[in-house]
Amino acid sequence: MKNLQKTYEVTQKAERLFEVTIPQTQFWEAMIHISTQTEFNTLSQIACTDWIEEEHFLLIYILTNDARDKNLMLKVTLGREYESMPSAITLFPQAEVMERDLHEMYGIGFEGNDTLYDFVLEQWNDLPPLRREFDTLAFVHEHFAFKGGREDNKDVKVEQKRRREEAKKQKALEAEKEEAEKPKEPETDTEETQDKKPDTKEAEDGQ
Amino acid sequence: MQKGFVAYNNEQKSLEAETEGIKNSQTLIQKAMNWFSARSMFVVAYGTGCGAIEMPPVFTSRYDIERLGVVGVATPRQADIMIVSGYCSLKTLRRVIRTYEQMSEPKYVIALGSCTINGGMYWDSYNTIKKLEEYIGVDMYVAGCMPRPEALIEGFVKLQESIRNNTIQPGYIKYREDYAYYQANQEKLLGKEIQPVYEEDYAGMNLS
Description:
The complex is a heterodimer of chains A (207) and B (208). Chain A is an alpha/beta fold. Chain A is built from 7 helices and 7 strands. Chain A has 2 domains: 2-143, Beta Polymerase, domain 2, CATH 3.30.460.80; 154-192. In chain A, the strands form 2 sheets. Chain A has a 5-stranded mixed sheet with strand order 1-2-5-4-3. In chain A, strands 6-7 form a two-stranded parallel sheet. Chain B has one domain (40-194): Rossmann fold (3-Layer(aba) Sandwich), CATH 3.40.50. Chain B contains 8 helices and 5 strands, in the order H-H-E-H-E-E-H-E-H-E-H-H-H. Chain B has helices at residues 2-23, 25-38, 55-59, 90-102, 115-118, 149-165, 171-177, 179-190, and strands at residues 41-44, 70-73, 81-85, 108-112, 140-142. The longest helix of chain B is centred in the first third of the chain and has 22 residues, at 2-23. At the A-B interface, helix 4 of A face helix 4 and helix 8 of B.
């Protein structure tokens, strides 16, 4: 941890989570430094976010230490078109599959990875499906046909809101009814409690 | 005279019945075949999607479907029934079609879960098929997300009844007769090469 803080600005995101943001040109250097000089010596995941408005991908290499109690997020930004990352295979062999997955879902190139062919999607000829410009619904309606019965399909979130509001209204109505009925009930309750209490009974008998 | 007439009538009737029996001997054999095959169902051990987790309790001691004449087998060539259990992605569909075509007739398909009927909760997914019946012949749908093992057993029993009474046209006959329709649907979705590509096929290629 100290080695890391000497060379990079480390921000602590949570008790066990640390973050380092580096420019793309320093990526390879940083990976070598982190994997050899610091305690974070295992690559557990490569996450990717597509920021289409800012025209870049945000790649997050998540590294773990031996005790598996600390995580480091290494954040790198990468242009959306005509740019590629150096592959991390030589440092972490498990990166092969992760990079292959990212190549398939986002179309990111990794220099030095020889396995960037079909992974989960076989013979896929369209845009990589997790890029934001890929219109999933249009693709679905182009390639698949539906059975009848979905015409009166409602938007789930709108319907959920409507139902919650209805439930609230009903609860309020019930509460009002209960309040209206309440004044009768307490009298009977008090009578019963008075009857049940032996002391008061004795007192009444005595009187 | 009347007696003879009656006797003649009865004879005629019995004769007609015999000729009918000879004419319909094919269906008699078919009936016997149906009766036998309804009680000997061999299910190929193949699961897609989340419904595969409902199958082990059905086949093991908890629900024990062997009492109804349903047994699991290892390979599609020995099987009569395939359960497509849940969502079916494009990659899986290639394997499903291949498995289905390897099975010998008579063969039946049980589609388990809402995903195989109309997409289910994956209706807006780019990668899962919506209607299974467009790509292979389907005999029985079991709706639900996920259906309980009891529902699957009910599906088996209903399928057995319909095989025994010959009340439905089996999916494999539709598949054989309307093969052009199914093939067109498969090719529209999967391209000309429907068969799956395995990793060894990539070995010779230089793709990087």
